[in-house]
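Figure 2 data, in text form.
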Amino acid sequence: MSRTPWRVGGAQRQGRREVQADAFAVTGDRATGRIAVAVTDGIGDTADAADAAHLAAEEAAGATLVATPEVACARARDKLAASSITADASIVAALFDPDHSRIRIAWAGICRAYALTTGGELQRATYDHTLGERIREHSTHRGPLRMYDRKLTRTVARHEFVTTSLPAETTTAVLLCTDGVSQSVDERTITTALRCADPNDGAELLASAAGINGADNATALVLRREK
């Protein structure tokens, strides 16, 4: 019998891209109740970008289960470097462990994590690794910077990964997503999706809203705590 208090649902849409270059992976250990997840966004609208995303997601999810998200992202980097794939990707990976009080997250690039608290508040757990975000951090500009918001400062292949964590006890649901979701739906829609009793319904809501006619691939992975 599984010890995990979390249920998982995932959904994708290709949008108007030629290739589905997003990927996600989920793995778990029924004995320990640990669940490891990863979402990746291949850079480019090519088969090589899709291969990079799939390789990184599978490696990160598998390694997270037995290590930490940060170590797992580094292993995904090594696996990508050792392959014949020339493309790169953004990534976010998370570990849900019933024996730990924190949900651990590591990421690089423009994949995001959001959390819904037990009080019903939506919190963004990550920030984008882009030149635009860096400019906003060091200036008074707060709006989009179209020229710079797509220029990544961290990826699977480049620079260090960043880590954060969420309090498991006061977190009701978590969303990991690509920017095809985060740039296409508002926070009210994300909150509605994370409130869905079935995480598959929440993931489908977000992927459908973002990707039916969206300009980008859209991937949503929702984890919801059992009541």
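Caption note: The longest strand covers residues 34-42.
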